[in-house]
Amino acid sequence: MPMRHVPERTCIACRLTKPKREMTRVVRGVDGSVAVDPTGKKSGRGAYVCRTALCWEQSLKKRALDRALKTEIDAPTRARLEEHARLQLDASPRAGARYEVEHESTTV
Ligand SMILES: [Zn+2]
């Protein structure tokens, strides 16, 4: 078998190995906060989840993610991750585009 340099990661929910770019990285940062890492470059303990509804459900509802990150994910964070998963799964490939909230500056 020829050597190929496609970085692969194991999904914490279904345990299948897939190319890293097809997965979403969730990271527990040094401050203990858990967040999706779209760049894949944040430092901290990372876990990879397939971009499927089933794997996200297992990760969040069955706490596979908590175990993988060796932490307890609190409710607000869990809600944020659920939201992220939902948007990502619904969305087109423009994931990563950010919606900027318009606000008026009152500073002088
Ligand atoms: Zn999976």
**Which of globular, elongated, flat, extended, rod-shaped describes the shape?**
globular
Total number of beta strands: 5
Q: What small molecules are bound in this structure? A: zinc ion
> Residue-averaged pLDDT, rounded?
85
**Full CATH superfamily name:** YlxR-like
Please state the oligomeric state of the protein chains shown: single chain
Number of helices: 3
Structural class: alpha+beta
CATH architecture: 2-Layer Sandwich
**H/E series, N to C?**
EEEEEHHH
The CATH topology annotation reads as: Hypothetical Cytosolic Protein, Chain: A
The CATH class label is: Alpha Beta
Low-pLDDT parts are 92-103
As a percent range, the share of strand residues is 15-25%
Largest sheet: 3 strands, antiparallel
Protein described:
With 108 residues, the chain is α+β, with helices and mostly antiparallel strands. The protein is built from three helices and five strands, in the order E-E-E-E-E-H-H-H. The longest helix is centred in the C-terminal third of the chain and has 16 residues, at 75-90. Residues 92-103 have low confidence and may be disordered. Bound molecules: zinc ion.
